[in-house]
Amino acid sequence: MAFIRKLSTSSGTRFEVRWRPAPGQAERSRRFESHDQAKAFKAQTEAAQSRGIAYDPARGRIKFQTYAEQWLEGRPLASTTRDNYAETLERHVYPTFGATAIARLTPDEIRRWFRPLRERIPSTASRAYRIMHAILATAVEDDLIPRNPCRIKGAGSDPHTERPFVPAEVVLALADIAHARIRPMILVAGFAGLRYGELRALRVRNYDRLHGTLTVRESIDKRSRRKTTKTDSSQRTVTLPRFVLDAIDAHLATFVGGDPDGPLFPGEAGGIISDGWFQREWRAARAQLDLSEIHFHDLRHAAGTIATQQGATMREVMSRLGHSTTSAAIRYQKAAADRDRALAERLDDLVDRLRTPANGSDSDPEPAPRPAGAAGFSRGAALSRQSLLRKPGSEGARDFARRSA
Which pLDDT band holds residue 170 (cuts at 50, 70, 90)? Predict the structure, then answer.
């Protein structure tokens, strides 16, 4: 059993919890600023005792950063994941909790840390919280603390932000207007779904023109370090459509040397393409089409949705994009279904307009002139930026690029 004692100290009123970790052991104590904190700790201690856990607060005096570094060393993580975890902890967790003893972390302190971080950078806040929760869950298993203080419901879930769908004609328009060095990279991302880091890491030997494929084995991280891919499923061979193969062939003839280990998409100096240079040219292409809200990673999502629209199964999409779980493939299926539903509704609107007499009378309308388009629809209607980002089936990409340039 544990009990709480109210104390008056030079720092103000404190509430002291006293208990014996196990029969015959010396009595332990811990002080809290509020009665609620003391009650919560007392309940945790008694619950641990009821489960036969001899909770010793001395073991919980290890600093969070020290324990987190030990945790990272002992986890079977891919090197890229380990680096990402370490960077997140260094930037967002250690400045607040690094010097705090594990046993002194409280749910209230974690809530006060998490709230402003989530307001500034929601996805980073969720990732940092997930890492911290996992570390402290291990501390519970190690009997360093009786209960995990990370108790914010839903805090570890990534906030869902609806990204604009980039249809095929916009991918083509971006490729047409971009610098020739990054043109095939845009096409491969938009129609084969390779990640930006995977594109930068491709070597000449990864391109098989005979079979029309690219083989992904490596990735370049944010610090321009070459590493194996994040997961085994990311290592894959992707078959490319003919127009993408033609673009890569033209690129090889213009920009690439004969070294099979050299980069498939080299920079101006011949090595791995510079991230700064690429981003500058990518921003310039977007700006010319007034599409600044599109991220390069959106092209990968476009590839998944376009593949689904063309009848690819969930397993085929997962294999093509290198996914290890079905969650992303399901998202692409939902996006394709939503767009298919929207298309059906627009077809209803079109037929309603065709059936409605132009003069509003009940008399038979004059026969409408034959539209110029081969499919029976009028051509040349102005395309807004919103329609290109949200509506499938529109004018050709070259018409769009020519009007927008």
Answer: very high
Mean pLDDT of 376-394: 40
| 102-141: pLDDT as tens digits | 989 999 999 999 999 999 999 899 999 999 999 999 998 8
Residue of 39, 38, 40 lying closest to 30 (CA atoms)? 38
| pTM of this structure | 0.61
Look up residue 189 and give its two tokens. 């991302």
Q: Indicate which CATH number applies to the domain containing 181.
A: 1.10.443.10
Same domain? For 272 and 130 the reply is: no
To which residue do tokens 């990864």 refer? 206
Given 334, 361, 394, the domain boundary residue is 334
- Residue 16 sits at φ, ψ, to 5 deg, of -105, 130
The domain of 20 spans: 2-55
Q: What are phi and psi of 19, to 5 degrees?
A: -165, 165
- CA atoms lying within 13 Å on the CB side of residue 17: 22
Q: pLDDT per residue over 80-106, tens digit each?
A: 788 889 999 999 999 999 999 998 999
pLDDT the model gives residue 371: 40
Q: Cα angle at 262 between 257 and 267, to 5 degrees?
A: 75
**Positive or negative: CA dihedral 250, 275, 82, 226:** positive
119: which residues sit within 8 A by CB, 6+ positions away?
A: none
Whether residue 398 lies inside any domain: the answer is no
